[in-house]
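Figure 2 data, in text form.
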Amino acid sequence: QLDLAESGGGSVQTGGSLRLSCAASGHTYMSYYMGWFRQPPGKEREGVAVIDSDGNTCYADSVKGRFTISQDNAKNTLYLEMNSLKPEDTNKYYCAAVLEAMYTGSCHDLVENPDFGYWGPGTQVTVSS
């Protein structure tokens, strides 16, 4: 079992920055793909970024060059640094994880199809023009 809790969402203007954090607890000693997805109400998930236990990262084309995913294993915390924010980035962002042993695809596959096994309650990001 892995529990995830996001923080750091808020409201910014176009071009602004936010840093999301995700604290993990529970079976953190296992190896996971960790990531972020966003999901508008009533719509499908959109993968944003993924990082594996070796620190390899992959991103959705829509955020590449603007967002950076990172993790601090000592603190069991995942981050998403978001720069040059656009109104279309407005969404609820979820921290998520899937056991590497349970996932047969690649990092990029997980961004394309964010089929995570664990996720948090989400944090809202609003970007105004």
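Caption note: The first strand starts at residue 2 and ends at 7.
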